[in-house]
Amino acid sequence: MVWASTGRVLRLPAVVVRPGSVEEVAAVLAICHESGTPVTATGGRSGVLGNTLPVFGGVSLDCTRLSGIVDLREDDLTVDVLAGTYCDALEAQCQAAGYTVGHWPQSIALATVGGAIACRGAGQLSSRYGTMADLTRGLTVVLADGRVVRTSEFSHSATGPDLTQLFVGSEGTLGVITSARLQLHPRPAGQLKAAFSFPSFDAGVDAVRRFTRRGAAPAVVRLYDEVESRRNFDTRDRHVLLLLDEGEPALLAPRWQAMLDECGGEPLGPELVDGWLGHRNNVRSIEGLIVDRAPDTMEITAPWSRVAAIYHATTAAIAAVDGARTATAHISHVYPYGAGLYFMFGGRPEVDDRPGWYRRVWDVAARTVLAHGGNLSHHHGIGLGRGRFMREALGSGFEVLAGLKQALDPKGILNPGKMGLDSPYGAPPDWPDQAPAAPRG
User: Please, which residues have CB within 8 angstroms of residue 334's CB and are 6 or more apart in sequence?
Assistant: First the structure.
């Protein structure tokens, strides 16, 4: 966004190609494979880690013409949809038919289905419906040489490894997703909302852990630390917990009561949840802050035994970086084994030092999380921004990923420079230090 405000881009592609069918995608990739031309698949381009930047030029493969629902199978509770379909359009059509996919990310109006799958995205209601990894039943994928692969829709199958999950989260480095079969749910008939406050973040974490382990986690569970609570809800010295559940009323009520029995905390009005629902996707304030305060976010997953420790250690590590002004966090997603922590940070470094400052914050934040038992990403993915941490995060597993890349894309044409993988075109930019030198003409 800083670059865009001054007319700069990291690298322009040589050409933008907009295929309208899987056959056209296959033809383009076959040509690029033969000629050794890099290809970066794109959808809505809403990723925040440079996932779709064509860092070595080549072909930008815009998949947004691959759009629309192909089939909605009510008996099977599945929907076949093309990868370039925007997530809000998909949800609107499913809702009109009486169903929901349940994928409600902040980027729902900007992201495409293929991009959400490729980055292993998660919506704000993932505690009820699951992430895109859970929702994706099968895929059509074009490999680097133009071969078309259709993976099985049967997730509960002993027919070898689940090949669908091989491509979920691969960010276009192993193949280009052209369509998907997704899980559906009946449109919820009931909804319940509540808000509570706690004297400390740790107390809130413990409450959420207790009701989650009982299987009583609502669709939305958001625990804000003191600073974010004050910023969003005008509270003082409290840590606010928002809860929202939806579903079949006969099943909803007992589950909600089990959650209330374990929750504790001081009750607040449900209007706090209504307020959050009204502005949850509004990010307009970022544009006004981007030049002055350098805001950004980092989301990770941690087991319940490490959530509180990671919160304290990481916010302290960020705050200790010279130039930092704020380091906060909230729980945004919960599961029986742990939770997604969403960190927010900002500062006012010297203008010339902004790229270096930004890199130092990410280095200390990511490595603090990894050192304390968390993972590298919950739902934003890796892209260019997190690539330098991949070997640390995956350990010996990184060589398995590199082997898969070599087997499926031996010439390395697919989204080169991303996910920390080696590229035949050279090293990727030293993100974000190697900023464009001058505005483009």
Answer: 127, 208, 212, 217, 221, 340
pTM of the model: 0.94
Contacts of 254 (CB under 8 A, 6+ apart): none
Tell me the average pLDDT of the chain.
93
**Contact (CB, 8 A) for 414 and 144:** yes
Say if CB 174 and CB 166 are below 8 A apart: yes
336 and 302 Cβ atoms separated by less than 8 Å = no
Measured distance CA(318)–CA(347) in Å, rounded: 10
Helices (H), 36-120: 87-96, 113-118
Average pLDDT over residues 248-265: 94
Tell how far CA 103 is from the center of its chain: 11
Q: Please state, in angstroms and rounded to a whole number, the distance separating the CA atoms of residues 418 and 414.
A: 9
| DSSP H/E element including 134 | helix 132-135
| Average pLDDT over every residue of 295-312 | 96
pLDDT of 441 reads: 45
Out of 83-87, 115-119, 120-124, 354-358, least confident range:
354-358
Residue 436 CA, distance from chain mean position: 26
